[in-house]
Design brief:
The protein has helices at residues 23-30, 41-49, 51-73, 95-104; strands at residues 2-5, 18-20, 36-38, 76-81, 88-93, 120-122, 124-133, 136-146. The strands form 3 sheets. The chain has a 3-stranded antiparallel beta sheet with strand order 2-1-3, covered by helices on one side. The chain has a 3-stranded mixed beta sheet with strand order 4-8-7. It has a two-stranded antiparallel ribbon with strand order 5-6. The chain folds into 2 domains: 2-49, 3-Layer(aba) Sandwich (Ribosomal Protein L9, domain 1); 69-150, Ribosomal Protein L9, domain 2 (Roll), CATH 3.10.430. It is α+β, with helices and mostly antiparallel strands and 155 residues long. The relative contact order is 0.14. The N and C termini lie far apart (69 Å). It is built from 4 helices and 8 strands; from the N terminus they run ββαβααββαβββ.
Length: 155
């Protein structure tokens, strides 16, 4: 079944594209959530008339994502955390914690765009990918340091 995508959908396509998907996927998932609509003659005509507006909007979002990626590439986040003697954290650092630290630095980044393979559980410096746009990925340097209250006294 041919559909016109309203939003970017992972492993399917980008907003505004015409894609062939399984009929059940379209009827049970895409249409009820208003993520796509059928590629009928009337909808295709409407899609063509809105094409220029979509292209301008996509270009603006791409440019702003590239600018944000350049800024994020130049900063280093330091997140203090409680840790044991061997450097293992009591708990873990996840994407919401990184998003909160970015917010404190003045960057508003959705936690869902921070692509941690697994939660950080050790002290150290990590490079974290941030997917700002379907075509733009920033590499964020995150340093996990021992917080003052978990400082290990010298034995």
């Amino acid at each position: 079944m041919q559909v016109i995508l309203c939003e970017d959908i992972d492993k399917v396509g980008l907003a505004g594209e015409i894609k062939a998907v399984a009929e059940g996927f379209a009827r049970n998932f895409l249409f009820p959530k208003k993520l796509a609509y059928p590629a009928t003659a009337g909808n295709l005509k409407k899609w063509e008339s809105e094409k220029h507006v979509r292209e301008v909007k996509l270009l603006k979002s791409l440019e702003s994502a590239k600018a944000l990626a350049a800024e994020l590439g130049n900063i280093s986040l330091e997140i203090p955390a409680r840790a044991g003697r061997e450097g293992h954290l009591f708990g873990s650092i996840t994407s919401p914690a990184i998003a909160q630290a970015l917010l404190k630095k003045g960057f508003s980044v959705d936690r869902k765009t921070i692509e941690l393979a697994a939660p950080i559980k050790n002290l150290g410096t990590f490079e974290v990918p941030v997917r700002l746009h379907s075509q733009v990925e920033a590499r964020l340097k995150v340093e996990i340091t021992r917080s003052a209250e978990s400082a290990v006294p010298a034995s």
